[in-house]
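Reagents: none. Just compute today. Adenylate kinase isoenzyme 6 homolog.
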Amino acid sequence: MRTNPNIIITGTPGVGKTSHAEAVAEATGLKHIQINKFAEENGCYDGRDEELGSWIVDEDKLLDALEKEVPEGGYILDWHACDLFPKSWIDLVVVIRCDSDILYDRLAARKYNKKKLEENMDAEIMQVLLEEARGAYDEQQIVEIQSNKLEDLDENVGRMEAWVRLWKKDKQFGH
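Predicted 3D structure written out:
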């Protein structure tokens, strides 16, 4: 039985996944895995999409590499997708959302090309990642939060930190 939970923090690029994951890891002691970096460090790429300017992850290689540690618990997985991770590994899925006008400015500041910017904006507007989470995990595992301003980060981290404390307390008492 795990003594620490596993959390996925997901959302469209630019919503604040990594900022949230780093802050939650610092507050809780859970280990933060930024999946893009992990995939690169562990040879889990299967080429590059030049049109979008992004790497293509080999999901089977990625899961094989993660399987050595993540099922034991204590991890925050930070990525723009969530449905490939086995349900048995995951205790909480946090889908971060952002207002379209704010997200557009964030992505434009990253100098995303037009196609990549439009694709990510469409994904946010159509709630693609929220629907992906709903299709892969139980509704009670999923939390949708907003990240439009800096104050949202502090509030969201506080909520996740409280959730981790409650999860550990429940496990301690056998729930």
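The mean pLDDT is 94.
Action item: order primers for follow-up constructs.
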